[in-house]
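tool=predict chain=A
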Amino acid sequence: MSIQLKNGADYATEVVPDEVVVTATDKADGSTITVTFASSDISTSSEYNYQESEEFQIGHSYTVTSVAKSSSEYVTNSEASGESFDIDELTAEESQSDGYSEQTGGFPGGGGGGGSPTITLTSVSVADSKVVISAMGTAITCAMTELDTPNEGSSYSYTLSGSGGMGEKVTGVLELLIDYTAEMTIDGFGPFSDTDFSGTWAEEAGVITVSMS
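tool=predict ok
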């Protein structure tokens, strides 16, 4: 699950906190999930800052609180708490606190019409064992690891692994099929959905070249 800190741009004219701690308390058993945004995780040039957590469970209900902490001498209150809000029976849909306003012009690097941001493919280099994608204008390099035994229907199979601009784990798969077509999926992360690419591949003198979009 992706946690979005919406007011990062506000800190451009204020002191950036040392950290912002978001705590979700499970209403059923009182267990807590803590997600921390360090100052280095907060971009003042963007309203959209993300951290990932795998601890949230679909169908559970949570009370979410947040507190910004600062040790700056220019701050009169070292801790400032945001308004809490409830998530009743978490679903895959977005939950938000009161006063939260969704973007209307699209994410940077994404669709300008306010739709979901997109992942674009920059390059695939089997020789260098890497795939490069662009997400919200940030170049992300994913390392390619060849499977010892290709998946059914493939001549070569690779897993992909990298890190997003906010430290999110980026994963995927690349299949070079026996009919010389290529299929690649980048798994969803942050605000991005699963993204598929397709193309062709060729092998000459032991060098594999992949062309896809």
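The radius of gyration is 21 Å. The chain has a mean pLDDT of 78.
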